[in-house]
Design goal:
Responsible for methylating the 5'-cap structure of mRNAs. Its EC number is 2.1.1.56. This protein is α/β, with parallel strands linked by helices. α9 links the parallel β4 and β5. α5 runs parallel beside α15. The chain is globular.
Amino acid sequence: MAVEEAPPKAPWMSEEKYQKLYGHLLKKKAVEEVQETNDINPKQNEEDEEEDAIVTAQVLKEKKNEKLLQQEDIFNDFLKNTSTDNQKVSKKIQPANESLYERNKKLYLQKQQEKEKKNQLEKVFAGKTNVDNVVIDHYNQRTEISKTSRRYMSPIIKLKNFNNIIKYILISKFTPEYAVVLELACGKGGDLIKYGRINISQWIGLDISDQSIQEAKRRYLFLQRKENLKYQTILSQGDCFGQSLGPIVQNLPDCRFPCDLVSIQFALHYAFETEQKARRTIMNVAKSLKIGGKFIGTIPDSEFLRFKLKKFPKDYDKPIKWGNSVYKVKFESNEFLTNNYEWENPFGQLYTFFLSDAINNVPEYVVPFETLRSICDDYGLDLVLKKSFTQFFADEFPKYRNVLSTNQLHGILRDDGKYGITGDEKEASAFFYCAFCFEKVRNVDIN
């Protein structure tokens, strides 16, 4: 009796997944082969029968493994457009088959990544792992994705363009000519070209992700040729928030400290896991700046988060979440609601953030701005500016419109002919984030 056979296991499919889907067919096939073996070999005494069963099982296992390997080889050969004596793969069919394979592979890998991310987040909420590990994994993955993706095809391209305009204006407004700039959590060096246009002398980039640093080095070499970047660039991997910068920069003798500007773009929220970590970060900033130097950055606006959270009743007992087609926020804890719409502790207020084609449910921490201002004051940094992206753009864009390139302006051109951002992207950027600047006005005795 013929038994339906399991299809070959795709190379990207795990053995566990394969067994779950087709294990029943493999089992039936094994039973049939055992029955055929028994028909050929008559039963002997019980000891001989037990020994035969063990030998038969081992043989079947070897046959099955050999068969699966053969099937996998055939499948791979087929996908690579090879041919056997009995079968030729049509060139017209090949691209479709390869496309199907790639789609299935990407879907499988995506599901595996989502499963791993879910497990990581559960450990974070349970206090069993450090947020830094999740952040590093996320940005390492984003670095790999960016190598093969086309930026102009991003579903949030208008949002990315708008954020870049905000950063360009912020950097231009507070960075003096020939400045020495230190960027903490520099990522892949997305702001390298911005500094090239304002004629700085040295840019020092530090990030916790080594893959991001390697990509930043590659990007700088490319831009150096294309845009004729003339400033010196120094890049190094290291924890900018949880540890002192001393051990990192002591191996970078060309760094010209103290700096004129320290920048942290879309990353300072990771430092607010604990008070110790937040203070260490601001201490690193203060120790790196000269008197009169500026500390600039962009962070999620705690006032906007409060506005959204206050829409929920105080007795709401489920995870708090909101968002739209572009972004999603989720708080596992309802402490803000039960504490009369305020955070009992300004540190460690964890939420997960999703932004289409950019951030995949990465854990972040609320940065209560009044707490950030207080810490900065402790280290000799006075507040110069704090505005939502909406207000900052409205106030500053008219001043900088004439210095922006045609491509920059086209990137934020709305359907109504005005400049800015609209729709779901507006809430995910213009409302969600704020820009800030502090100035170092005094030295503080820092151990």
